[in-house]
Amino acid sequence: MAPPPTAPLRVASLRRHRATEGFTLVELLAVVAMIGVLSALAVVGFKKYMNSTRTADARAVIGSIRIAEESYRAETLTYRTCGTSLSDWYPGTPNGKKRNFNGWTSHSRYDDWRILNVTVDSPTTFGFSVVAGAPGEKAPNTNTSLKPAWPSPTSEPWYVIQAAGDNDGDGVLCYLVSSSFNGEIYVENDTE
Length: 192
Known about the structure:
This protein has a four-stranded antiparallel sheet, covered by helices on one side. It is an alpha+beta fold. β2 and β3 form a beta hairpin. Helices cover 39% and strands 14% of the residues. The chain has one domain. It has helices at residues 7-21, 25-76, 110-116, and strands at residues 126-133, 158-165, 174-179, 185-188.
């Protein structure tokens, strides 16, 4: 039996009616809430990414310092000290502001850094310090909560590099520590 002739008209009318309704308020609120959650996650992820890139910059500078120290030792059979302590920061105290690494002639140990000849191309938010010693001298303690275990007494010349940065200006520092005792870089508060 054939359907009545008005059935196709009713279906077409229902399709037109549904197409003109649009979204309900609940559907729009759900979409807005999802966009809000996703954007909040994106902001947190972006901040972590930016902090990790700053830490990567500090790692690169530490690598440059290590290369410069080994070159200096190849010529003089000793490592070069560029600070009175591991808190004698060059180019300056970590404060979250970018500074060029080279050219800080007002720093008290500028001549030592110039002689060491560390090459850094980009500005950094970190401060760096290098303390070196002769065989038998005790290596200094770092500012980190977990103190690395240095050999005592030392049988070779040594150096310790410490970098610190305050990327968000809250006074909590991110530390990176490396030494001639091993090739590792210890990192503390890297998401700072």
